[in-house]
Amino acid sequence: MAIFPSALLPHLHSTRWFMNHPARFLAAILFLLPLSAPASAGSGQTAPDASLAGTWACQSVYGGPFTGRACHTWPQLMLRSDGTYTWGSEQGTWEVKEQQLHLSGRTGTGHLDADGKLIVEYEVKGTSYRQTLFRR
After folding, report:
1. What is the pTM of this model?
2. Are 41 and 51 in contact (CB under 8 A)?
3. Helix, strand or coil for residue 95?
4. What residues does CATH 2.40.128 cover in the chain?
């Protein structure tokens, strides 16, 4: 007799059902185990957040001589759903850990603000920058 997940559900309340049929118990555990495992289990990496994937363009920048200047002609940040990104000539991988965006090619982090804009804070040659990006 083949045991399918739908066949298990009506009997989950009965422990006798499991005790009398060890194969059913094992099948239930093997079915439910993947449902409780985190998506990144075993890989040591956090999966890219699909909601951030897309093209982001610069709205404003604060830092050094660029504070208050328009940045609409700056390179766009392209976050791909496969976990890679391109930002001008910079290429690498990206991931989200603890609600913070991490890019492999630069120090600093990014996060979404309440308006859905991506705020990226980083440092270049000792100068701190805060760039606000909007989704294209």
Report:
1. 0.63
2. no
3. strand
4. 50-135
